[in-house]
Here is the input.
Amino acid sequence: MNRRERVLKAIRHEEPDYVPYNFHATASVYEKVRRYYDLPDNEALIEFIGNHIVKVGSDFNVNPWAENIQVELVPSGGPVMSSLDAQGGLHTDEFGCVWDRRGGMPHPVAHPLAEDYRLLETYRMPDPYRSGRFDAARKLADRHRGRRFVFGKLGMALFERAWAIRGMQELLVDMAVRPEWVEELLDRILYEWNLPIIDQQIALGIDGFYFADDWGSKTSLLFSPAMWRRFIKPRMAICYQRVKEHGLVVGQHSDGNILKILPDLIEIGLDVFNPLEPQVYDIYAVKEQYGDKLTFYGGIDVEHTLPHGTPREVRAEIFERAERLGRGGGYILQSSHTILDDVPMENIVAYIEACHELAGIDTQQALREARGL
Here is the structure.
């Protein structure tokens, strides 16, 4: 059974020989881990770790055509940026949203429609068919197809893309006072960007498609379930259906507590849910309630255990998650979000080597083989 087959078996709610796992981190963490293990490149690192999933596709806040930015995908689905742009860390994406990329996770600082919603009349979406858009993704898919589970990817799938264009506060007000305008914006994102992007990635020969769109806080949805069902659900259903038409798996990432709409997501065709945050949910209760319908992908605590725990605690959590969440299939082990630079190297090593132990992999042998690639 190879890694792709192991993931598919888990998604079918069957128990594979061991729980499939993944390591998902920022580019800077990848580089630190690569140097720690003295590996030649990220491909060798992925082979050494034994990742089961590769994400290809469009990143959420990078303009790959910017003059002083060169973006290259790594097999976890994240970008490696060779340099900051001329604004010294402020980066304008293809949609006109300005991101501050200095330090940890990027955050937006300016939005193209923030000053006046009526600017939508003349606003132009990026060209989804621009030549070369998926050259790196195609190479990555070709390299891993058949050996690992390959997810196409669309970050900031709908709500996040809308607030990046309009501004978070402004969009939330719009949802209450000018809902028809919000629907127009979302429909333009759906038909002018999302569906063409999905279609082009399906043509790469992927196994499934992974949508990322954060809808929740730690306690609840960011807006009412009724609003989600009006604005988001019907448009995500169209995206999911486009993937399902090709017999592919649908994955969805949403941070925060979105329990109230999990049945809706199942209804429109969701197969894999990420990230299953232990700081948000009783993860075992969620698996008990929905584990026959969804595969859960995540579960390792990135807020407490990884940055602040001991290596022993990291190992214990990995084995516990694999044993309890892995029963009956329906689980892919990964951190509950991207591993950041605040995680000590000894805990990253504990994570990787505990996964090896789960899989019956000899770490030193895997290291020798990866160095010989």
Notes: The CA atoms of residues 353 and 363 lie 7 Å apart.
